Amino acid sequence: MNGKHWLLPGLGVILLLIFVVLPPIGALTPLGMKVFGIFLFTTMWWAALGIGFPSFVCLVLIALLGVMTPTEVFAASWGNWLILFLIGSFGLSEGLRASGFSRRFALWFITLPFVAGHPWRLLSMFLLACTLLGGILSLTVTCVVFMTIAEPMLAALGYKRGDPFAAMLMMAIGWSATASSAMTPISHATNLAIMDFVGKDTGRPMSWVLWMVAGIPLALLTLGMLLLFYRYVVRPDLSKFGAMAVDYVRAEAAKMGRMKTEEKVAVAVVLLVIALWTLPSVAGNVLPDVTAYLNNMGYVIPALGGGSLLCIIRVKNRPIINFRDWMVGVEWDTVALCGGIMALTEIIGNPKTGIIQFLGDIFRPIATGAPFTVFLMIILFWTIVQTNMMSNLVSATTVYRVMVPVAIATGVGNPVAMAFIITAGANYAFALPSATTSTALVTGSGWVPVGFMLKYGILLIIPVVLLLTFIGYPLAALVFR
């Protein structure tokens, strides 16, 4: 790395040293000064150097500076239930991918009879499949599945890297995979982390079923907005796309043949795990003993059990997935980031630091003085601008930790609905490769020039803010009453 690449990490080191040395500011205590310094340092390292090893550096600093004991650091980070839950979820994703079901699901949508000869219908169904599959798979797996279908198809139709339509299609895959993350908590660390925070901060655990009641229609509305954006703003030439693409896709689907046993097993295991996750919210008082048992089991045991079943069950003397492939399929950067975030948020929320009171003193006048709609738009604009530069989880956590406690303290709005739309906004990272793995994948493929995605991604910021303010928040407030 040359000098300019160390500018942001170096600034993080300087800020850390300043906050460790300076006397307390405002409501911040000496402990809070250290924590604030670690937070600023870690955020800058995440932005400049990636989310993996800086998350470990964060844990090291928390222990070295005496903010927590090493045992407390381990318990708050990698000892958090989210870590094993994510590992289990990635095993389920790998099962759907390795068995071939994910590809079959995508191809089925774009071979439906009514799309033949209609390029925009074909594109819409392709991206609908991407959105729906992205609701239960990690955005990286979703993106890879649809890119492996789109790349040879584009090449077969004569498109070159950088052609406007090809760039738009690959960009749309990245955007659909990213936005679909807001649909469900399944396999999505950002949603799970915020759900965990809300339960602790408000005493009102967020139901998985209610999340999906709000998340699925919001994701479909977002897809509709994006399709209109592609057609009337990007306006690509689809003259080579349509009938030829349908023929190509049908030929690919024919190669897969009938649904294989391993696909059926993978789907059955995933559906069983989802049922175990959601049954307590649905069964309620109808099956009280079953509900109590599943509530005690939590979310981790079904996830790990499902992944293990896929390793145990063999078809034609081969497991659906082997353990090595499961571990390779785990997004370890995301897991490490989740561990760092969990430790940071635990100490930020500690009253002994004074951080929540300090931030409240800054933002309380805005919450109480400005119209609520303006306050909401400020929150969402901040979330979406930040998430287009760095990790979704970092962005959601930062804005949540600053704004939701202020809303709770001042009695402004519905804090649970606010947490939901902050999370949704953090999943709308469209502009830069650094925003999330899906945007990094599509630009790294060579099909999407960075300038092309940046140009259109910036144009989407205001429409997304308006969508979440005037549709997303009212919908969430209705669901999370």
Give a summary of the structure in a few sentences.
The chain is 74% helix and 1% strand. It has 481 residues and is mainly alpha-helical.
Structure in words:
The protein has a domain of 248 residues. It is an all-alpha fold and 481 residues long. It is 74% helix and 1% strand. It has a two-stranded antiparallel sheet with strand order 1-2. The N and C termini lie far apart (50 Å).
Secondary-structure map:
Blueprint lengths: L6 H15 L8 H20 L3 H12 L5 H7 L4 H19 L1 H9 L9 H16 L4 H18 L7 H16 L9 H14 L5 H27 L8 H14 L4 H23 L4 H10 L2 H13 L1 E2 L2 E2 L3 H7 L2 H17 L6 H15 L2 H16 L4 H19 L4 H12 L10 H8 L5 H10 L1 H19 L2
Antiparallel strand pairs: 1-2
Structural class: mainly alpha
Q: Write down the overall mean pLDDT.
A: 88
Largest sheet: 2 strands, antiparallel
Number of strands: 2
Topology order in helix (H) and strand (E) letters: HHHHHHHHHHHHHHHEEHHHHHHHHH
Helix content: over 70%
Distance between the termini: 50 Å
Q: What is Rg?
A: 23 Å
H/I helix tally = 24
Taken as a percent bin, the fraction of beta residues is under 5%
Large-scale geometry:
globular
Q: Which residues sit in consecutive blocks of at least 5 with pLDDT less than 50?
A: none
Strand order of the largest sheet: 1-2
